[in-house]
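Lab manual, section 2.4: Encoding a predicted structure.

Procedure: take the sequence of the chain (203 residues), apply the prediction step described in section 2.3, and record the output as structure tokens. A sample record is shown.
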Amino acid sequence: MRRHIFLLLVCATLWGIYEFAVGGWLYGHHIPKSSVYLTAGALLLLGMSMRLPIGSGAIISALAMLFKFMNHPFYACHMVAIFLIGVSYDISRILWRRYSSRNYYPVVVGFSTGYLSAVTFSLTITYLVQHPHWAGGLPQVINYIGVQGTMFAIAGTVMVPLGVRLYDKIYGLRWIALHRPVGWLAVSLPWIYSIVRLVRSFG
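Recorded output:
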């Protein structure tokens, strides 16, 4: 259990840092399809968490969302997108869990997560949040699913299996005892920094 909690925190923290640092750079430089690069990184980290119980994806995404909120101005679209990637990942694992022993399981989970995250995000941000940038209605939703969703799905077929393999490789290196106190300290430092940064922002 302790190892699972540590892995969950590592994945969430790395995702939050990636969103804050890389995402800030991508959007700051107006890089086309920035969301594809951010989703690809998220899917890699979710793939690393595949050994955790189903439901961990939503927890990881919620923590990543919190980390970004503490370090970056609030933007509803980004927050909703982060959370729904994790939820879509969990749903995909449930949908395909009968094939969890097959080698292609991470591939299909990644593929379906890509499309499902595009579907849930576009519908939520258009009809529930009713964000002004999504005033195009159903045609904009369909276009987003067809274009962005396909890119997310392609990224998922590569990044989720890669994340699983990466975790297995790291886990096999017995000399990396990251679950020991030094590991907990390392994963705590970004959060301590974020809390201090958030507190100072109110001063």
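Check your result against the sample. The chain has a mean pLDDT of 90.
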